[in-house]
Amino acid sequence: MHSSATGAASARPSLRGLLRARARVRALPRRRQRELACRRRGSRRRPKAKGRLGAASAKIAQQRRDHLHKLMRALVSRYRGIAFEVLNLARLKRGKPARSIHDAAWALLVEFVRFKAASAGAELVLVNPRGTSQTCPACSTIRPKTLRERLHRCTCSCVLDQDVAAAEIVRRRAFS
Asked: E strands along the chain, which residues?
């Protein structure tokens, strides 16, 4: 998910094409894996099945990299400064959103931005994520929320999408 402080947000960063392709191809790697498991070791068909499994996995990986390159080029050309939260991906990948995190390839995304920002003269800042989704961007009070709460509502009458509010806090921490 990327959100800008201006309110522009993109879900898992706009992986619709990738998700559509993955839905079409989702059964393919499983089918190819099953096909490989059914082949006896040393048979003539096993290397062919192994090659088809590798090709299916490579196709998904290539689509992911292509999408990330296009997204990062657009972000770097649009913004002079880009900030990311330094998330503990190893811990997040063990939870429920593991498939989404693997699909979004967050670590690869940060590496691409680092490379593309350096070549375009943009600034990349990594921010501590502690309290970014709990802090109000208008009055800076901390209000604990659950992950299910998608709207940030504060006593100061600030009502924002939770991701936009967190993006504003990240922007402030990074550039002020």
From this structure: 2-3, 9-10, 81-85, 123-127, 151-153, 159-161
Structure confidence at residue 103 as a pLDDT band (50, 70, 90): low
pLDDT given for residue 29 in this prediction: 76
Q: State how far the Cα of 36 lies from the Cα of 43, in Å rounded to an integer.
A: 11
Task: Give dist(CA 103, CA 134) in Å, integer.
Answer: 26
* Cα(162)–Cα(133) distance, integer angstroms: 7
For the stretch 58-97, pLDDT in tens is 888 888 888 888 888 888 888 889 998 888 777 777 767 6
Determine the 3-state secondary structure of 14 from DSSP: helix
- DSSP state at residue 153: E
The answer to whether 69 touches 108, Cβ cutoff 8 Å, is: no
Q: d(Cα 104, Cα 150) in Å, to the nearest integer?
A: 20
